[in-house]
Amino acid sequence: MFEISPTEWTAILLSLRVAVIATLVATPFGIGLAWLLARRQFWGKSVLDAAVHLPLVLPPVVTGYLLLLTFGKRGLVGQWLADHLGIVFAFRWTGAALACGVMAFPLLVRPIRLSIEAVDRRLEQAAETLGAAPWQVFATVTLPLALPGILAGMVLGFAKAIGEFGATITFVSNIPGETQTISSAIYSLIQTPDGDAAALRLVIVSMVIAMGALMASEWFARRALLRLHGN
Amino acid sequence: MVRATRLVAPARELIVLRVDIAKQLGEFSLSASFESEGRVTGLFGASGAGKTSLINVIAGLLTPDRGSIAVDGETLDDTAAGVHVPPHRRRIGYVFQDARLFPHLDVRQNLDYGRRMNRIADDPAQRRRVTDLLDIGHLMDRRPGKLSGGEHQRVALGRALLSKPRLLLLDEPLGSLDEGRKIEILPYLVRLRDEAGVPMVYVSHDAAELRQVATQIVMLQRGRVTSFGAVKVLAAPGPL
Questions:
Q1: How far apart are CA B125 and CA A128, in angstroms?
Q2: Over the stretch A142-164, which tens digit does the pLDDT of each residue have?
Q3: Could you give the 3-state DSSP secondary structure of residue B31?
Q4: Model-level pTM?
Q5: For residues A137 and A34, what is the distance between their CA atoms, to the nearest angstrom?
Q6: A-chain residues within 8 Å CB-CB of B103?
Q7: Taking the CB of residue A48, how many other CB atoms lie within 10 A of it?
Q8: Is the separation of the CB atoms in B31 and B221 below 8 Å?
Q9: Which residues does chain B have within 8 Å of residue A227's beta carbon, measured at their own beta carbons?
Q10: How far apart (Å, rounded) are the C-alpha atoms in residues B106 and A70?
């Protein structure tokens, strides 16, 4: 019974690709934003903070619909991107990656922000007095000390991205081989008369991936503590 | 005085530090004005007198509300002219009371940090002299977490010296150490004064300590400079 069929493999590999790309692209933005929220005071900070967390509290179908309105073929941004840069999100796996990235973003940012806040500012001051410009302080002190938190954020974001369903199916539908991820494949299989066994196989696969990601995240969190205490 | 090899920029030994600043920090108001050209200017005062705030202003970590700071004729702060040189461009070394070694770097990398940031060419002879002076050669591969309090402070001294500062600020470098450790570190500071050739501002609330290290004194009381002059302004509480 535990023979994974080619269509199931397609969905698994697509899910992995979508989640990996979503995490990798979202991480630099996540680090930048986490640093802003952790270290800077500016007008509208609380609004930005709320906006980052919005995908966490909005119904995923709402986020997906907003993405469709914005990045769809006729969307404001989507049309411009298609016309000028040839980037199309609608009904493509790239759209799935965008939806997953947006949904994963709050979970990615939070641990990074906490770990940057935990970096002792007095160490950053010491670096300044030794001649480090602000970007050098960030690269040589803040970033390495926050690294375990950044990895933990990436793992959490990845776990969220690989399980994303609502926003993805709303935005890019459920096209096998293009936008059908594990979640949407399970959804389709449950609605098919003989789909139970296949659905169960995918359920097990997704549980294994999620468990692995959570355990990795836990491990990074422990490393973070060790590192900050000087090991 | 017997003087061994000079370590850093001997011609700059008699640096002139001019400070005339005001800074409001919550309820506390700091307003200090002095000019010093000693090798070691002792900044003396009780805790809460504003000593740390004052050297944070000199280091550029705090911006004065009003006034100016100049080292060797170079203006580092001048609120009237809108000048504030950021800390990383001041070439002012800072040894903090709590050492502040980078926990993710070993001693060697900590010592090398200032050189790398300032893109100074590697100078093994200089590094050798500093590590010999401070007796930290055997600690090179250790992480700060594995150092004693006294070792921490010596590495922090070495790290600040190796960034080739024109002025070195020391904020109660013995403050976090117990009596035995203080006696361990004090000779290194005296050696530093006599051999390193870097002018220093030495902050302490301990008159006995300053009598050993300082060459002139700025006395600070509740945010104001109350007296300034030779070490004898520290009224001896008893026989030295």
A1: 25
A2: 999 998 889 989 998 999 999 89
A3: strand
A4: 0.84
A5: 16
A6: 123, 145, 227-231
A7: 13
A8: no
A9: 103-104
A10: 50
Report ipTM for this prediction. 0.87
Which residues touch A104 (CB under 8 Å, ≥6 apart)? A22, A23, A26, A156, A157, A158, A160, A161, A164
In angstroms, the CA B225 to CA B84 distance is 23
| Closest CA–CA distance from residue A129 to any residue of chain B (Å) | 5
Amino acid at A101: G
pLDDT in tens, B49-86: 999 999 999 999 999 999 999 998 899 999 999 999 99
Q: How far apart are CA A21 and CA B166, in angstroms?
A: 49
pLDDT tens sequence across A68-92: 999 998 888 988 888 888 888 988 9
Cα→Cα distances A50→A90, A109, A114, B89, Å: 27, 12, 16, 37
Chain A contact for B91, CB < 8 A? yes
Contact B113, A157 (CB under 8 A): no
The pair of structure tokens assigned to A39 is 């270290």
